[in-house]
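My hope is that you will study the record closing this message with an eye to the fold:
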Amino acid sequence: MDKVRIFQVDAFTDRAFAGNPAAVCLLEKAADSNWMQNVAAEMNLSETAFLVARPEGFGLRWFTPTIEVPLCGHATLASAHALWDADIVPHAESIRFDSLSGALIATRNENMIELDFPAAPPTETEPPAGLLETLGVSPVFVGESDYDKVVVVESEQIVRDLAPDFRQLSQVDCRGVMVTSTSAEKEFDFVSRFFAPQSGIDEDPVTGSAHCSLGPYWAEQLGKTELVGYQASARGGVVRVRLEGDRVVLGGQAVTVFQGELAIE
């Protein structure tokens, strides 16, 4: 029976058991999509990343327990961390990932990992039927990014107090929804939470890809191009955001929780 290396990494945190856990599976060759989906369901984390070495980097795919997704920030951060932490890639080298969202570059900046992602600024839209009722909020702004809805509310307390009915939310016509406001704490510019029951994730602990939309939105509102966001889930996580043209640089830390071997028949 063959085996491949697998890691579990907590992303967007500097300590274990916080941030967003992701599984990172290092494959020797491309794998069947159904097999990868089964592994992701077995891991039962918000995302499992699958890496295959290529001449100029790594192929990267992401799966929730129920679907493949086109972009995932925290599992990309976890993947880069695992490759450097296990000395698979020299620490001084950047890493190129080829994904469904194009080429993504990860670099080390002192104790921070930075990810170069495409910006996805939200455009104002009408909320889908049932969304605001399910969330129980009166929004300041409702927008739509490439993949998800953005709901801006008046205060951090509203964001923290949200307790949506996930069964009802899973019936709303949207892949996921981020709810956000300015932060009441000086160390952060904005706070958010992310819900995606249609993708098999009731609440994602820390969502890097959401900050591809949150960053451009709050940069325009606050008049700055470098921001710090806090995702106010039960685990919590910090995402640094820097706008560079049509790209967003996401910064965060990560911690390896465990590593082992995955059996393949």
